[in-house]
Design a protein that fits this description.
The chain is of the alpha/beta class. Helices cover about 55% and strands about 10% of the residues. It contains 12 helices and 8 strands. α4 (about 70-85) packs parallel to α5.
């Protein structure tokens, strides 16, 4: 691939894409767009982009535009980018964690076919260009939503790009996607944030947290270190499915509370044994 690529948002996802493009021998130019000057400096130092330009100029000089900013920013940028690339062979794709809102924005645009809705199911709790790593996407799933609405060449191009990172492709309706990620991704972050707040509220002496925290606690609260600027828009965008899963989660927590309060060990054992089934699914 020798086309020029514009990446908006050179953080964990955008920066890791840039690194993996170079690892794969990509010879074209990578043009960055980022509203944070500090991020631009770090990204240039790490070689994540050849240059940073204003959005309009970056789109003009690029063949592929990849949106890796927070999901609300991607929604705001997409119509203008589709305006700029309409009637050209250029392609724009977003890599956000929610899809229904941005899909609705795209559906209202006459150049909808030049857009591909993608979600690489990969990440860490870290953020910004300093968090970009090699092989972040290898052997992970990339979901492409509403593929029938994208032009064949646009779909093939973004599919090939994601496959070049050694990702496995799944196709899904955007609404279906948002329900699934609420259960397998978004609730994990919410519960991690909530647990961190509980511990910080009760353990005023941070030395106790540091000295008593074991592996189980650390792994459970790891996601609470995730960037609020990234995750607040995700939770707001996917409010419907997330509220549904929060209600389900609270129901299960109340079951545990009920059986703990009554001392019903057998019911507790049955709950935990039922939960153990997830281990077989995730093998």
């Amino acid at each position: 691939m020798s086309a020029n690529i514009c990446i908006t948002g050179l953080g964990l996802i955008g920066g890791s894409m840039a690194r993996n493009l170079r690892l794969n021998g990509y010879m074209g130019r990578i043009i960055g767009v980022d509203a944070n000057p500090h991020h631009c400096t770090i990204a240039m130092y790490r070689g994540l982009a050849d240059e940073f330009l204003p959005l309009e100029e970056a789109v003009e000089k690029s063949d592929i535009i990849i949106l890796c900013a927070p999901v609300d920013v991607n929604c705001r940028l997409l119509p203008g980018i589709l305006d700029m690339i309409a009637g050209t062979g250029k392609v724009v794709a977003d890599m956000g964690s929610t899809k229904s809102d941005i899909a609705a924005v795209a559906d209202r645009h006459p150049a909808r076919g030049r857009y591909v809705a993608a979600h690489p199911m990969a990440g860490t709790e870290h953020s910004g260009p300093a968090a970009a790593v090699d092989r972040l996407f290898s052997e992970k799933i990339a979901i492409i939503c509403d593929p029938e609405k994208s032009d064949d060449d646009a779909l093939e191009l973004i599919t090939a790009l994601l496959q070049s990172f050694n990702m496995k492709i799944q196709y899904m309706d955007s609404g279906e996607h948002d329900v699934h990620v609420a259960y397998v991704s978004h609730i994990s972050h919410i519960t991690s944030f909530a647990l961190a707040l509980c511990v910080l509220e009760k353990e005023k002496d941070t030395r106790n947290i540091m000295s008593l925290a074991a592996g189980g606690f650390e792994s459970t609260v790891r996601l609470s270190k995730s960037n609020a600027e990234t995750w607040a828009p995700i939770f707001a965008d996917n409010a419907g499915p997330i509220l549904e899963v929060i209600d389900t989660y609270i129901d299960k927590m109340n079951l545990f509370r009920k059986h703990i309060e009554s001392g019903d060990r057998e019911s507790l054992r049955q709950l935990m044994t039922a939960a153990n089934r997830i281990g077989k699914i995730l093998k």
